[in-house]
Amino acid sequence: MTTVAGTAPGESAPSVGGRIGALIRSTEVDLRQFGMVVALVVIWIGLGIANPRILDPVNFITFSVQASGIAVLATGMVLVIVSRNIDLSVGAVVGFIGMFYAEFMAHYLPETIGFPLNHPLVWVIALAVGVLIGIAIGAYQGFLIAYVGIPSFVVTLSGLFLFRGLIWQLSGGTTVAPNDPTFNLIGGGPQGSLGGIWAWALGVVLSIAAVALLLNARRTRRKYGFPLRPVWAEALIAVVSVVVILAGVYVANSYHWPPGLATQYAQAHGISEANGPLQIESGIPIPLLIVIGVTIFMTFISTRRRFGRDIYAYGGNPVAAELAGINTRWTILKTFVLMGILCAISAAIASARLNGGTLDLGTGYELYVIAAAVIGGTTFEGGIGSIPGAILGALVMQSIQYGLSFLGFNSPQINMVLAVVLIVVVGLDAWNRRRAR
Amino acid sequence: MTQAAVSPPPAIAATRTALVDMRNINVAFGGVHAVRNVSIDLYPGEVVGLVGGNGAGKSTLTKVLSGAQVADSGEILVDGQKATITNPRDAKVYGIECIYQTLALADNLDAPANLFLGRELTTRIGNLDDDRMEDAARKVMGRLNPNFQRFTTPVKSLSGGQRQAVAIARAVYFNAKILIMDEPTAALGPAETAQVRNLVRQLKADGIGIFLISHDIHDVYDLADRVSVMYHGQIVDTVNKHEVSTDDILGMIILGKKPGEVTQKEMEALELRG
Description:
The complex is a heterodimer of chains A (437) and B (274). Chain A is mainly α and 437 residues long.
């Protein structure tokens, strides 16, 4: 009854419940991702009912900053799993590069090189070297996997041990601090945010970009004479996109700087607080900006570039990819290099939030990241998984974690809830796939 | 079908350059000599049937030509020039396309993505031009299977015939000069098989040389100009189709001997089996 693929646009299915079906078909929305958005809304409504204070904007901001480190890594893990591999080393690599940042800024730059403290270039240099280390680690592990032929599970398990060990070697077994203050803005906080007007500007730019992309896609499809989505569906997608973007900015901006900090700022800039305390809109935290940037970049890489197409082709059928002339080994190596770069970015966020490097930084990240990718619809058979899905997966998991901890549950209890969520989500997927066959 | 009888006998081929000339090809896997000193050639507009039992070496031999398998020794000439083929990309440069028995499709990708797998069309700045690829896919699929409309669903959900059409479209689109078809009709129903046969005739008329691998003797007998029979890694003989019967070919496949060398006793044993 529902197998109406290929019907001409405009033909509506008159069956009961067909209106929602028609809505989903016409907008070509990904049902699974739509379901996850619904789940996310339900989770937050549930949390809000349990304790309305959680709906305060400050919680959304704290939550998003907490989730960002996992979300950044999840985008890379999708591609690793899509290409039939796994990376168990991401947590250890994040810890290692995080410790490197701290060691580099607290000791190496000022003491060994004699680089002036608080120099405006410190964060750039640190980040650049961190990314290079990420590339080197990714190339090393990717080489062993793609060219030597050692299973990724083994290589990255070895990487987990190796880099956890190197963290101790590097730091001498202690916490290393402090970081460069500018570097620490990468971790968010009131100063590390794109405040007020700039947040709105970004929101407007993103909205315009979203609408432009939709219009452009429609124009080229029309040019080639392909079937088009109904205009109302197109308009609906545009409106929903813009509303979501602007609502996000609104929420971010409705959190204001803490009064003490605002007063300091007012005094430092000679602003009078005679007419009441200064209200500074916090805006979008830098870690969240990084997540947005990484998501757009990774989505672009995976859907609009040959590299991404090669990864999906390999995941779907390694032999076919090889026979099609794809350099599959080089492709696999590159996915691990990409993962290494994302580890360096995630490490910067984590280390900046702590103002230093700790021995247990990134511990357990690999499991949360894999869970986020899997909850987001990535399957271990290979070839299936999407970047936006993984971001949604990270949000769902971190929402449960943040929300339950806000409600006073302890972390062993939260872990048990996550265990159930993981099995239910993946079980639903498996059931759904079997039914579709 | 009287046309086939009028077409020039393959003997004329001797005066032209072979499209493909594989000479003294050897492939061994460990101790198993899968292809042993095999020489085979193919001329433009010709269909050469490659038949033999399981493990006779047909697939390995064609993999050498398509770049999926590197030969231990021997040489390949394409249009009379020595060709170096060490991977599938090299083969494609020489206009050699292969339709594999397994079809070699990425099930998770849609038809246009599979059609252009490994050689995607891109925009000036190197982005995938999915619209142009879909457009091209619609055109080429329109010729092969006019009813096909599912250009944006993963090929996993397509029927056997539709998947076959995608695999064939991939070979045809890139203007192959040399086409290898490995069991092209094994998974197809009668109507689709007829469609593939028509396509083979059409490609032949366009001057494309085709190696046709099939278990189905009648398929081969119907479409091929010459038939090469392989047995235990070697070519038993290459014969002009009109000079032999299907029984002769069957005898070569099973016994590994040329028709004249088969003894009366073996012939009787064969008939008992048949």
